[in-house]
UniProtKB/TrEMBL annotation, chain A:
Natural source organism: Spirulina subsalsa FACHB-351
Keyword Coiled coil: yes
Record keyword Coiled coil present: yes
UniProt keyword list: Coiled coil
Coiled-coil ranges (or none): 5-32
Superkingdom to which the source organism belongs: Bacteria
Descriptive protein name: Metallophosphatase
TrEMBL record, chain B:
SUPFAM superfamilies: Metallo-dependent phosphatases (SSF56300)
Family statement drawn from the similarity comment of this UniProt entry: Belongs to the metallophosphoesterase superfamily. YfcE family.
Domain Calcineurin-like phosphoesterase: 1-220
Stated name of the protein: Metallophosphatase family protein
Domain of life assignment: Bacteria
Pfam families tied to this protein: Metallophos_2
Amino acid sequence: MWAILSGIEGNLTAYEAVLRDLKRQSVEIEALYILGDILGLQGPVEALLERLQSPQGGERTPQICAGFWEDQYLQMQGWGGGQPEAALSQYGSNVLMELEKRVPRSCLDWLRSLPFGFLELDCLLVHGSSVSVSDELSPQTPPWQLLDYLVRVEANFLFCGRLGQCFSVQLQNSQISSQVTTLDQPLIEQKATSSPRQIIGVGSVGRVSGLARYTLFYPTTGQIRCRTVEYAPNP
Amino acid sequence: MKIAVLSCIHGNYEALNAVLLDLEQHKAEKIYCLGDLVGYGPYPNAVVEMIRSLDIPTCQGCWDEDIVEGLNACECSYPSLLAEQRGKLAHEWTHERIYPEVRDYLAQLPLSLREGDLCFTHGSPQNQHEYLLPEMNAFAALERVLSTGANTLFCGHTHVPYVRTLEAGSIRLRVDYKGESGEETVFTTPLRRIVNVGSVGEPRHGRPNATYVLYDTETDHVQLREVEYDYQKTCAAIIEQGLPPIFAWRLARGLEFAERADDPSHICER
């Protein structure tokens, strides 16, 4: 069984609550993924980063990819070739100062080393979409767009975290007819079908104070469970 | 109304003149150009001046972008080191000769244009560097058209013309959200179409002739046009001007040489 988390956003208390919940599971956790947004506005991240890099007895070492806040922070520090415009437009002009206060400069190299995502078995695990960490996939995203994100990487499952909520969109029995005319060849007719595929929002561990959400996935059966963990937030 | 759509002229003034004559003979009332005015060919300034003088609505191509932004815009798009070396030589050659006002013109070109239910772009609606090949996954191809809101998407960039219709698309969908399991929904789409207009100045369909497209907005008919011209003049100019001779060799054969990108759908993140 895999545990898939996202959006801790500096909330170490919430992360600890999830780790306790994982220890209570009857099935062994074979892999622990964190789909970005370690950084965020919920709390200072120094202690969280230490905790992530030093798993305690019996805990899996988390596999972490970059998220929206990591991307924006790196852009803020001059990496990535742009300005953190998405954060500015969504969270206002003070957001960069608030982020700077919470993130130690010493973690810059570690942040730069984070991968875009993971492709494991037939699963893509990313923060946003297969195109960008800033994409916010949701049940309202047009189904053709969702299918495109899966087809691009030939995956059957796409786990994402940008929305911060648990959801699942199952795409079943997709089909389409296509005809191609060229200068020289006769008309080529094709019928394409797509096997069932799924987009899963894995929830957010730290965004909502007192309520951590994450996802458990059984890769052999495809079963998905959204877990909600209540905890006492720091005063 | 009869519309002519051209792309990928690549500094080939002879080819552009031949196409302009052909579309005039076919009574095209409006012309659209999908970019890549410069690069590879010996007359980038003359081509841009001609397009501007005719006031042809034009999108920015990947070569136009690279000349404005520098090659860092997508250095990962070359299929091999050899192709990269040649591409850089052509880029430097063009970069050194292009007039400042031509560069300014290329810089302000839009990434896409719309007219009614038609959308015009160089590579794909998402990126000038993406190749919409005819064998591209049909669902992905459909998404590119749907993302524009248009019924027909005109593109270039591959240098090989084709028309692809996409119809009877359907997806069965079920959503689980906020603890509730939704009912199954079926999404269907009406007919959509991708028209790749080929290349005026650097064709890769196996012959040296220029290619472009005529489209009749009333009958909805698409005609792939192939125009003969004196390509050897351009080949000679390529060599005389000190551009890599391979560009003349492949223009004479209408081939891309032997190399192809490993992942044509790759989108540069830069």
